[in-house]
Amino acid sequence: MRAPGNQSHNQARSDFSSLPGRPPKGAEPMSASERNMRRMGRLAGIQTAAEETTERLFWLHRELSDAALANWAKKVASIIKINALRAAAEYTRRNSAYFVRGPEILSTVEVERRRGAISDVAAQIDNLAHEVVQGAGNYRQFEQHLERLRSFGFWIDGALVSAVARAFTLS
Questions:
Q1: What is the C-alpha separation between 169 and 171, in angstroms, rounded?
Q2: DSSP state of 99
Q3: Distances (CA, A) of 99 to 114, 146, 154, 159, 163
Q4: pLDDT of residue 106
Q5: What is the mean pLDDT of the chain?
Q6: What's the angle, vertex CA 142, arms to CA 136 and CA 145, rounded to 5?
Q7: DSSP assignment letter at 107
Q8: Interacting residues of 122 by C-beta distance below 8 A, sequence separation 6+
Q9: For 50-73, what is each residue's pLDDT tens digit?
Q10: Fewest C-beta atoms under 10 Å: which of 16, 44, 90, 104?
Q11: Three-state secondary-structure class, residue 155
C-alpha cells in the first residue's frame, strides 16, 4: 500500500486541474464567457476586500479622533482620500472609451482626441491625490474635474464619486 503523499502522476494532475486558474496544457480551452466569469469573480473579490479595508480605515479614523490623536487621524484621513481619488482616476483611465457621443458621428481622430482629453483629466485627478499627500487639495478641485469630464460626455461611477466625497468629509 502506498503512503497518502505518494499519488500517481495522473491522479495528481486530475486533482490539480480542479483548482482555479489556467487549465493544464492539452485541456479544452476556456471560452470567452468562462474567462469573463473568472475575471468578474476576481474583480468582485478585490472590490469586496477594498471596501472592507476602507470601512476599517474609517473606523480607525473615528477611534483615533475619539482618543484625541489628531495627527494620526489626519494621516488615516489622508490615506482614505488618496485611495478614493486614485480609484476614481483609474476608473476614468480604464473606461475613457465609453463616453456619450451624441447624435453626431465622430471621426476616429475626434474619438481619440476625446479619449486623450478624458485620460488627461484622470492624470489631473492623480495629481490631486499627490496634492493630498502634501497636505493640500480639496473636494471642490475634484468637482471641477468631474465637470470637465461631463463636458466630454464621461461620468465616473456614482459609487466612486460618493467614496471621494465621503473621504473629504474627514478632517
A1: 7
A2: -
A3: 9, 13, 5, 18, 22
A4: 87
A5: 86
A6: 130
A7: P
A8: 89, 90, 92, 93, 96
A9: 888 889 999 999 999 999 999 999
A10: 104
A11: coil
